[in-house]
Design goal:
Multidrug-efflux Transporter Regulator, Chain: A, Domain 2, 272 residues, 8 helices, Multidrug-efflux Transporter 1 Regulator Bmrr, Chain A
């Protein structure tokens, strides 16, 4: 018969506290081999020592419990890949936070911000189809993937800069803030209206002038584009112009295939 370890013995062997072991039991992450029906005492097997130590180490690097559960179901190589993917996500978040800290430091010190080439252009009256959604940072990829597909089938597009898809930010999109954000696609004015009851909206945007800054792929991410947004708003004030709406991004190239120095979007401000 395989020797059983009490929760105290198992705690010593695995370096996990009894509190942690009870939590992992409740979350179905590490169940005891046996629970005494009369006393309620938990007993573990020798075979559970290594998995328990692995869980403890994964928690030391702050891997969420839900992802630990998924990782434990994988074989060694796949589990290692899962851990590497999670770590890469964390490094990207850290890099974004570092960029935001540098930006905030520059503002607090009153340092000069980067100089951008602000351009003006005229856009004619256009018909737009759009999907407006409240999403936080974690939901943007799913929203874009779905919305782009649906808007492509909502009418014949336009050529040139007039037909470029655009994002309108009515509020900040972050961990705490959910916009809203609107994805728009200019279409031929003769296209049929969207199906009744669908959340695809159709409207006519008046002809207008807009100020814009063209950004490369490495400049357009969040918070890398913050200095460009500041520069655009500063240019608008200095030239005595009035915004006709919130900031927007015109998506002029496919980000999935673009190199870091490829121009991929225009941050723009519609003007009265």
């Amino acid at each position: 018969m395989t020797a059983e370890l009490s929760i105290g013995e198992f705690s010593q062997r695995t370096r996990l506290s009894a509190k942690a072991l009870r939590l992992y039991d409740e979350l179905d992450l590490l169940r005891p081999a046996r629970v005494d029906p009369d006393s309620g005492y938990r007993y573990y097997s020798e075979a559970q020592v290594e998995p328990a130590r692995l869980i403890g180490l994964l928690r030391r690097v702050e891997l969420p419990l839900a992802r630990i559960r998924a990782l434990l179901l994988l074989d060694g190589a796949a589990a290692a890949d899962e851990l590497a993917g999670w770590w890469a996500e964390g490094e990207q978040v850290h890099a974004d936070s570092r960029g935001l800290v540098f930006y905030l430091q520059a503002r607090l010190r009153g340092e000069e911000l980067p100089v951008y080439d602000v351009q003006l252009r005229h856009l004619p009256e256009r018909t737009l189809v759009s999907i407006n959604r409240h999403v936080d940072a974690s939901g943007t990829d799913a929203f874009f993937g779905e919305a782009f597909i649906r808007l492509r089938s909502a009418g014949t597009g336009l050529q040139g800069i007039e037909g470029v898809p655009l994002l309108v930010f009515y509020g900040e999109v972050s961990t705490d803030s959910d916009g809203p954000i609107e994805l728009c696609r200019p279409i031929d004015a003769g296209a049929a209206d969207p199906e009744p009851g669908a959340d695809i909206q159709r409207r006519v945007e008046p002809a207008h002038e807009e100020a814009y800054i063209r950004l490369t792929l490495k400049e357009m991410g969040w918070p890398a584009l913050l200095p460009a947004c500041d520069a655009l708003e500063r240019w608008t004030r200095e030239h005595g112009r009035q915004p006709a709406g919130p900031l927007r991004q015109l998506l002029i190239a496919d980000q999935r295939t673009a190199a870091a120095d490829t121009p991929v979007c225009d941050v723009s401000m519609p003007l009265r």
